[in-house]
Amino acid sequence: MKRLTVDVRPGEYSIAKLPSGSPVPSLPTSDGLVSITSTPDELSVVSLAGISPAAEKVDEGWRLLTVRGPLEFTLTGIMASLAGSLAAAGVSLYAMSTFDTDHILVKGTDLDRAVAALREAGHEVHA
After folding, report:
1. d(CA 65, CA 106)
2. What confidence tens digit (pLDDT) does each residue in 57-75 have?
3. Reported pTM
4. Structural domain that includes position 78
5. Nearest to 62 by CA among 44, 78, 77
6. What angle do CA 34, 40, 42 make, to 5 degrees?
7. Domain containing 42 — which CATH number?
8. Which residues form the CASTOR ACT domain (predicted)?
């Protein structure tokens, strides 16, 4: 795996779970990442904590790490490299991908361990 450059993004994020069939919330995107994923079982929303929609379940206290892209679709092992390094350090994650790059969320309480683990694995992390 080549060395990745990872940026720790500002702000605290939350992950909200809404019931299946819920209307897609309209959230501002200019201040940070917003990801809305719909399945037959749920609607999940990742956003800055301050704009998180009211939901049946909300998990707060996440920090966002973004791989600098764009990344080609032909590249392999990017998420595996990040996830493996974090798993070895005992850090759980929530993973997402966009057209251009990959993103991971780690609990704020685990951020220092996550950054250290990624650096130890040879990645460049800007915190």
Report:
1. 8
2. 999 999 999 999 989 888 8
3. 0.93
4. 5-126
5. 44
6. 45
7. 3.30.2130.10
8. 58-120
